[in-house]
Amino acid sequence: MIFKNRRTFIIHAASLCATLATADRAFASAPLVDENDPAVKPLGYRAKASTVDSAQFPKFHAGEHCANCRFYTGGAHDAAGACPMFPGKSVSADGWCNVYALRA
């Protein structure tokens, strides 16, 4: 890129610096779901599937966790990922909720 004068160079350099300074926010992952959030409680979300009370949630079976749920969109080796049940938030790959459905 050729700059015709020093002013255009400074303007482009300043905009590049501003872009780089805010880039980490654009690529940051969504915040994790809070188990104590009143909107989350009806779904029975737990960040660790091992802490699910099977008396309260009889649908739960050992070995079920978000990473093998059909709704989980995180990668196979990610610690957390997105779930449409909790828009704008991430769920723990080791978590579980009452909407769990085994990935086919």
From TrEMBL:
Taxonomy, superkingdom: Bacteria
Gene3D superfamilies for the chain: High potential iron-sulphur protein
Stretch forming the signal peptide: 1-23
GO molecular function: 4 iron, 4 sulfur cluster binding; electron transfer activity; metal ion binding
PROSITE patterns reported in the protein's UniProt record: HIPIP (PS51373)
Ranges of residues in domain High potential iron-sulfur proteins family profile: 27-104
A Pfam family: HIPIP
Annotated keywords: 4Fe-4S, Electron transport, Iron, Iron-sulfur, Metal-binding, Signal, Transport
InterPro entries (alphabetical): High_potential_FeS_prot (IPR000170), HIPIP_sf (IPR036369)
GO biological process: aerobic electron transport chain
Family of this protein: Belongs to the high-potential iron-sulfur protein (HiPIP) family.
Role summary: Specific class of high-redox-potential 4Fe-4S ferredoxins. Functions in anaerobic electron transport in most purple and in some other photosynthetic bacteria and in at least one genus (Paracoccus) of halophilic, denitrifying bacteria.
Subunit structure: Homodimer.
Protein known as: High-potential iron-sulfur protein
